[in-house]
Amino acid sequence: MWFSGQNRKYMVGSGVYKNDHTEHFWQLPKDFFPLEEGDRIVDVTAGKHFTAVTTEQGKVYATGYIFYRHFSTECRYNRQNDEDYPYQLRLPETGGPWKAQQVFGSEKYNNLWVTAINSDG
What we know:
By secondary structure, this protein is mainly beta. It contains one helix and nine strands; from the N terminus they run βββββαββββ. The protein has one domain (about 35-120). Helices cover about 5% and strands about 40% of the residues. Strand 4 and strand 5 (about 60-65) form a beta hairpin. The model has no long low-confidence stretch (mean pLDDT about 90).
């Protein structure tokens, strides 16, 4: 995945300064999102303060400390337990298990929408 523009509120991690990549594209490291072995990104949404992706295995990962603070600890997870790192957003178990297909986001009110499918289709 390639990125160009300002990194606001850790949109692509805390190790990238706000204006580092405003004039060129920069490739995110392959291990930026904590994907499981063999999984890969199939959809991405991003905005001024966040990045969110869905994977082939149906998981959702995000970055940005505003979303990190918005989602409860039951929903978001990273092994560092720290907003400076990408984190998984777990879908509800009710009616599932769910497999995410696409993700859409908006900074206004910190909204993420995920289309997902369960075993019933």
